[in-house]
Amino acid sequence: MSDPIGGEVPQQKADVVADAINRLLTELSVKCAKEEGVRDYFHVAVVGYGATVGSAFAGSLAGRDIVPLSEVADNPARVDERSKKVPDGAGGLVETVVNFPLWMDPVAHGGTPMNRALQYAESLVAAWTERYPASFPPIVINLTDGESTDGDPTTAAEAITAHATADGAALLFNLHVSAAGGTPTAFPDTADGLPDSYAQTLFAMSSPLPSHMRSYAASQGQRVSETTRGFVYNADITTVVQFLDIGTRATELR
Amino acid sequence: MGSATGPQRQFPSGADYAEALQHTQLCFQHPELKGARPELTKLGLPRAISGAFASVFSLTSPSSGQRYAIKCFTRHVPDQERRYQAISSRLAQLDPAELSQPWNIGFEYLPDAISVGRDRYPVLKMEWVEAVTLSSWLDDNHTHRFAVDRLADRFEALTRDLATHEIAHGDLQHGNLLVASDDTLRLVDYDGMYVPALAGMGGTERGHRNYQSPMRGNDDFGATLDRFSAWVIFLSLKAIASDPTLWHRLHEPSGEFLLLTEDDFKTSGGSTRLQTLLAHPDRTVSGLADHVRSLAFQPLDVLPPLAIAVPRQRAAATTASAVSGGRTVAAPDTGALPGWMAGHVSPQATSTPTAPSVTAPEGFHTRTLLDVATAVLWPLMLVATVLMFVAGFSAPPIGPGVPVLVAIALTAFARGRRAERAQSRAALAELTNELAQLDDPVKAAEKLRKDQAKFDAAEAKRAADYLRAQGKLTARYHAELKEVEKRKVRKQRDIDKKIDGLAEELRRALAKALTDKQSAYVRDQLGRRLIAQAPPHGIGPKLAARLAAKGIRTAADFTGYRSVQNTQYNSTGAVLVLSSGRVVDVHGIGEAKAIALDVWRRDLVAAAEARQPRALDASERQSIEQGVANRRVQLTAQRKAVESETDASRAKVRKQMEDDQKRLTRENTFAGDQARQQRQEFSRRAVALQQNSALHGTLSASVEAAKLRQRGLSFACYLRFLYIGR
């Protein structure tokens, strides 16, 4: 997780992943904000895996598993000030500072115990589906550099998607951030052309996109088919957030 | 960006806008918005109110001090600018004096107004409205029955304003209807609005799912878009006005609906919320609920507008009391039509009842010659009677009453010749006939109600059966899975036991191999010692030859001897035991010689044992270990086979379950389709009943009126007519 990946500005994989998650949580908070505050359209758990497997929330949410979105929105660990160059309207760029809420920090040491992480996620999914059998099924988004260091994750992945609510089986989407290179790929419908066996394994583990997500992806200009899977390979951070956005678009909000 | 290259323009996300709006000095060029102050969250980020297509931010202009709602779009909307221009110019034409309340909000579409990243995007600049959403207002005000009822009326008036100008909002719901401090309504969010200038274009959204008819499709876009939502909202407001406890009973805190949700319209048979309203003791509530239920299964464009219900309702209240011209709406409480419906039946339902085709004449008109003659006759006859009295004609048969009788008979004859009588009879006969041909609406309503109740009960049972069948399927699936699991565990335990025993097996095999090797060595050594070559003490060549003749040539050929009691001679002999276990008697070998042979052999055995190998060599050992290893591989393979066998069984059980589930779903979908058709049929019958009932009422009233008029053609009336002319 400490290898750099491609892109305009080389970034460590762990930073990319942490940024993606922090952005996603900001995005979700804005998306679910209504007149009276943030609505709990989603409940969110962030599981980190490296030296240990467990809640990756920092700050006052540290150690918590599934947290209602309204509480997430109100409790970032801190709000960073990040400098950013924006157009000044006169053709130039000007350096500004923007507020960037952070809920988790990058984890870039230890192995990649994907099996244990998926098993952990599975326990959360199991408890959730039992408690809310009528809700939209949980979505597990696995952001990883792909190299599981504790064995083949296929079985653990299957265990997650074996849980279901009245609306269907739990969904597992995989986001593969790799240093191996190859063409960035989003929502493929076949494993052909994926650069390595890790990517192929992750592709095979990923759930097919349900129809409403397919149509949303299509409306966003993605090419999708019936067998399109929730898998993204090495796409840059914009697609990363976009992918998460689609992955979490469980219901039309209005 | 991967394959994310579509023809459509990508819009920034809500968070992107929130980031850009941290520097309004940079992102806006518009003089009023440049440097505007956004409202912030406690994290210091611009506060958003988001929908599916856009996020709205509150900004206060530094130049004018005005507060605006700035809508930033997160999704591509086809022809957005054109739509907003059309909507804006249509709304601008509305005369505020003609509107029931100032519900329209001023807005301005600003293309390329905000820069996010390297690109510029449009925004909608709107007046900031100090008002609360309808649901928040109800949270605070649902107990004020009068205020809620007044709001329901204001809502009706609002929909009437829209209908009058052929405007449809497209997404009427609790979040887009705001209530201002004076309790008048404001309508916000015009993204999906239809105005006549947009006719022919497609819709951009489907509206909030908890307010839409199940029949609304993606492409529906026209003046009738709001009709179902309007009825749903009107029902909710009227119901709360009538029974404020409904707000807590049916509405969930921060639920995305008022009293009813999407599911209530889709599964009207089984929804408990709708049932609560349908069974409500207030007939306005139950009647409106039943109406909404029947509307849910009718195509959007035949739905009655809510707006026309209001004037009718009031007009009906005034005309119903003045039953005069024989033309009135169905009398209230006939049982077929609840009173509230008088004003709420669909337009075709109220307009279709045809007026009776014939009318009875009102009294006599225009005297004929015969009438005049009759009129003249009466005084003559009365005079005649008087004269007859005077003249003394009092005896029968020509009594003094005769002239009067003649006058009566002639009058009756003349009355009978009047056309009005025939007309009246014909009219009454025709009306009675028409009435007889109509079904009795009370009975028909009763039958419809019974049929519907029966259907609802059957549907409820079907839903329960479906759940039960699903439950059974799941239970069977789990039981079978458990069985598969048990079988697997049993088989694997057996194999595991064998695998665990392998170490012991190896130890034993090695021990046995060593023993075998040692005894083979000893046997070999003994086989090499020929009796003839190194005979033991007392065995000469002759005896050796005899022994050889019996098969005993070496020490390996026998294993010992056995004493034999010769009872005949009372002496002891001996027989030798061969290595095969057989015994032989060798002539000349008595007990002593046998003992000598045995001792010889034992010595040889002892000597051989002393030299026998003490361990297996590496290759022998390896081959045994290899055997056990092979066995282990075999067992492990078996164990794996059990695993995949189990997987196959699991898959089979799962497939079976899925197939069954699919079958069940298919059956249920089919039954659901049937039920939907049945519901449509009920709605159709309800509408027909409404029409029939109105017609029935009209006809009944006409019959009554005809009867009344027929009384106006009585003998006495005719007499009056003869002299007064009326």
UniProtKB/TrEMBL annotation, chain A:
Domain VWFA: 1-231
Lineage summary: Bacteria, Bacillati, Actinomycetota, Actinomycetes, Kitasatosporales
Gene3D superfamilies documented for this protein: von Willebrand factor, type A domain
Stated name of the protein: VWA domain-containing protein
PROSITE patterns cross-referenced by the UniProt entry: VWFA (PS50234)
Annotated InterPro entries: VWF_A, vWFA_dom_sf
Organism: Streptomyces camelliae
Automatic annotation (TrEMBL), chain B:
Source organism: Streptomyces camelliae
Extent of the signal sequence: none
Alphabetized Gene3D superfamilies for the sequence: Phosphorylase Kinase, domain 1, Transferase(Phosphotransferase) domain 1
Domain of life: Bacteria
Biased composition range(s): Basic and acidic residues: 640-666
Region ranges (Disordered): 639-677
InterPro entries for this protein: ABC1_dom, Kinase-like_dom_sf, Prot_kinase_dom
Domain named Protein kinase: residues: 42-329
Pfam families, alphabetized: ABC1
Protein name stated in the entry: Protein kinase domain-containing protein
